[in-house]
């Protein structure tokens, strides 16, 4: 019996699978582990196996399996639906990208509406004898 563990010990491939909602087809992309985003290293910590909203993009999702992750991209410019855990049409999803992070409808309701903040401070004068 051959030990394939040694052969695969240096090979790290991750399959990225995207689901096409309307046709039921899936496309597969392969990325080397070294190409994965280091900021997502702990994205699956404490989560059950399954798909989750990507923290940076409405059109991406993260597939967690046994503590590891793969990134998936929704086809045809769709967004990931956190309720159904599938890609769906943008008009059905309330998700917006803010400064490289995403905000879903639930998060928006939790924090309330965005209110612009402007603070006008009076000029500060330092007395000459203080220097």
TrEMBL record:
One of its GO terms (cellular component) is extracellular region. Pfam families: CBM_14. One of its GO terms (molecular function) is chitin binding. Residues 41-97 form the Chitin-binding type-2 domain. It comes from the Eukaryota. InterPro entries: Chitin-bd_dom (IPR002557), Chitin-bd_dom_sf (IPR036508). PROSITE patterns: CHIT_BIND_II. Keywords: Signal. Residues 1-20 form the signal peptide. This is Chitin-binding type-2 domain-containing protein.
């Amino acid at each position: 019996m051959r030990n394939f563990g040694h052969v695969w010990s240096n090979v790290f491939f991750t399959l990225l699978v995207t689901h096409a909602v309307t046709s039921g087809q899936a496309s597969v992309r392969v990325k080397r582990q070294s190409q994965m985003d280091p900021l997502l290293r702990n994205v699956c910590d404490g989560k059950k196996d399954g798909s989750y909203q990507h923290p940076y993009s409405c059109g991406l999702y993260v597939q967690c399996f046994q503590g590891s992750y793969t990134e998936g991209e929704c086809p045809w410019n769709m967004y990931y639906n956190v309720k159904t855990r599938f890609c769906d049409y943008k008009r059905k999803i309330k998700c917006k990208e803010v400064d490289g992070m995403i905000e879903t409808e639930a998060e928006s309701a939790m924090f309330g509406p965005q209110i612009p903040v402007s603070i006008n401070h009076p000029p500060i004068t330092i007395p000459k004898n203080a220097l």
